Amino acid sequence: MPLGRQAMRQEAARLAFRLLAGLLAVAVLAALSSACGGGKQAEEGQGTEAGGSQIVFASMRDGNPEIYVMNADGSAQTRLTNNPAVDTAPKWSPDGSRIAFTSTRDGNYDICVVNRDGSGEANLTGNPAADAAPAWSPDGSRIAFTSDRDGNSEIYVMKADGSAQTRLTNNPATDTGPQWSPDGSKIVFASDRDGNFEIYVMNADGSDQTNLTDNPAKDGAPAWSPDDSKIGFWSMRDGNFEIYVMNPDGSDQTNLTNNPAAEYLWTWSPDGSKIVFVSLRDGNEEVYVMNADGAGVLNLSNNPAVDAEPAWSPDGSHIVFDSFRGDNWDIYTVGVDGTGEARLTSVAAWDSQPVWSPRASRGR
User: Fold this and answer.
1) Is 363 among the domain residues?
2) Would the pTM of this model clear 0.70, i.e. be above it?
């Protein structure tokens, strides 16, 4: 039966969103997945002090994806990067002073950084291969990332200034999606070295690589809870994407969502008591929140449009997300109880991939 006009438009939005907002992840998983300059410095008095509450995001308002910041109320929207390449997937440093992102300005994906005021832009990896998926260590001194410089996707780590780039994994399979433990001593990641994607953990120096999930289905997107007591991930072992948690040693693997619809794009709250995620359980992509044990599921966005990419405010009271409610993607916030929804961007261009400062919540 042919799709109706609204359904066709929303399906097109989903596909286009996956191409733009998910461009990096697709490149990494498929492939696997000059110095940066010219960023525009924000004007003084626009909430750019290191302790201020800002949201970083990617925007197409200049004709290509650029990195922008704005205050948490949507004011002072300021472009940080300014070049004709693709700048995408911004990630705050733990202290909120810098932003790591990926860029194609040298003809391939590199990991770049910029200060939150637009100064100090630099290419950290500077390699002809694809470098992607940067993850700051908890103390901000190191960045783990994925690279295909060895002919396949491997996990690397470097100092925050781009020096001492070191390969941690070394096998012909795909290793991707590194995430640090809260104390910085371990890194969890996904690998298909056993024939399907599983969740692995290793010491921060690459030693003692261990399969935690050991399941014939696909498991991916792992992230530690803030208190180090659990590792969350998605799994297809039930025939669809579900959100699971397990102990750090791989024991007690538990399905939290347990729904026939797909559940993904999940993130721990800053205190670890809740998880925000995207679900198709109501027939379209909506933003939901639940307790860390899977109870108390609440639809936060509750709109017939596509709502996606949720991220937490530092105090855990609000969620920022992007939504295709008109003819383009815009950024919204909503209280964790589903009240007080506010639209932050309203330009005639796509705004997506929002992340709140000063620290990025853990999750995928």
Assistant:
1) no
2) yes
